[in-house]
Amino acid sequence: MAETDLAAELAAEAIAAAFPEEEAVAERPTLESMQALAEEVIDIDERIEKNEARIRELRARRDTILTASLVDMMDEAGVSLLQVGDRKFQAGPFYKALIPVEDQNHPGLVWLDEHGAGDLIKNVITVTFPKGADDEARLAEQLIRQRFQMAEVARQRAVHHMTLTAWLKEMHQSTNPNKVMPPLDVIGGIIGRIVKISKAKGVV
Questions:
Q1: Under a CB-based contact definition with an 8 Å cutoff, are residues 155 and 125 in contact?
Q2: Where in the chain are the domains?
Q3: What is d(CA 152, CA 140) in angstroms, rounded to the nearest whole number?
Q4: pLDDT tens track for 9-46
């Protein structure tokens, strides 16, 4: 063997000895190392929980300012628009209405029916077919109860909260002397004032 080949081989062996393969030097998992990672997860979970609680507190404080404290002060001072930095704070009306879908006997649905607003309510039919009934499932809804006894049919009446809110706003702002305003507690309604935030135009 030539001296150059021997020197190269010895050099390669020296490098290999100095930098062994990763698998050879990697620490085998121990109970302590696994426990340490598990404890780290517990610590992370606790920190997340604390941060989420703090975020909830901040959001609640923000809502209080925009729906009560600030809007009341602006109304009292006769100020409808306030600019701070690159943000505009504008006071205006606020509406919200919500009838829970899970309560099919909710008095809000009854009230809407009895006062000519039943067209706000949509009917949702949920049909469940057994496995392998793909062809039957494609047939028209109105034939299901009569023709397919294997199908489970659930009917649900609901009003989307945005539809109901828009209707409440329209009713409240209507000048019709014959309008009948719904009881707010019945439709989960809120009529109030709020400060909305937007970015001021032309402000970089």
A1: yes
A2: 122-155
A3: 15
A4: 655 665 555 555 554 455 788 999 999 999 999 999 99
Tokens, residue 97: 């209405």
Sequence-separated (6 or more) residues with CB below 8 Å from residue 74: 80, 82, 89, 91, 195
Tell me the per-residue pLDDT of 156-200, one tens digit each, with 9 for 90 and over: 889 999 999 999 999 999 999 999 999 999 999 999 999 999 998
The angle at the Cα of 124, spanning 162 to 96, to the nearest 5 degrees, equals 15
- DSSP state letter for 182: P
Q: What is the DSSP letter of 120?
A: G
Strand ranges inside the chain, DSSP E: 81-84, 87-96, 122-128, 152-158, 190-199
Tokens of 29: 């998992």
